[in-house]
Amino acid sequence: MQKKRSAVWRHFAEEGENKVSCRKCHKRLTKHGNTSMMLRHLRGKHPELLPCMLDGSSAEVPSVPQVEEESWPPEEQQQEEMEGLPSHDNSVKKKRSTVWRHFAEDGRDKVWCRLCNERLAKHGNTSSMLRHLRGKHPDLKLGDLQGDQTRKLNRLHLRSSNSETRFLSICERLLRHNQLTDCTLVADGHLVPVHRLVLATCSESFEEMFKSITQPNPVVVLRDVSLTELQGLISYMYKGETLVKSHNLPGLLRAATQLKIKGK
């Protein structure tokens, strides 16, 4: 390949006597004695590579715009679309890191870079390949190189097993001491301070109501809801449970339905 003068050969590798493969997408093309077909492939599939080629010293590269005037045999087009990936790519697919997009195995203990053909020794991981890409091909995004597996290792999933219980416990304690309350409910003429966040979390009716209220510490008068029923509902919303006498149960359920209290 070093005998080729065209910069297009940076992006292709020979396979046998009449085939070449694109280092970028692994498509196999048929050779026809010149690089016009390979140039056409790069222009159509990988236009981002052309600026790099124009910086080279090849005499063939400036003629890229003339490729549009050349004819490309239909059977050649069909062959490019129908050709499968090279057989060695089956092993690449098994690799978890996306760094293998830019390398191919060369025997049992070597790999070669598809971008510059440099060969590296394998060491059971992708560290040397990542160092090579960072040093020789810094235009590649680091996130694309490290792959999903490495990104997962860089993140820790911290999860609390009782966050909801702890939240309600704190809110219930604040309610007992009348701390941080920001709303007052009125039932049977009695004022009951509460927390809007807790009510909005447990009741669709309160949620919609508080979305439209802009003033701080609003006072909400609950009609057709007795103080006993309200106290039972507040206990249920803050603690997740409440004690109710049997003869008060129908009124409590009616008030819960009216205020759209969510069940646990």
From TrEMBL:
Q: Which domain of life is it from?
A: Eukaryota
Give residue spans, biased composition: Low complexity. 57-66
Which species is this UniProt entry from? Petrolisthes manimaculis
Protein name (database record): Uncharacterized protein
Q: Name one GO cellular component term.
A: nucleus
Q: Which residues form the signal peptide?
A: none
Quote the InterPro entries the UniProt record gives: BTB/POZ_dom (IPR000210), Dros_DevTransReg (IPR051095), SKP1/BTB/POZ_sf (IPR011333), Znf_BED (IPR003656), Znf_C2H2_sf (IPR036236)
Q: Which UniProt keywords apply?
A: Metal-binding, Nucleus, Zinc, Zinc-finger
Compositional bias segments (type: Acidic residues): 67-83
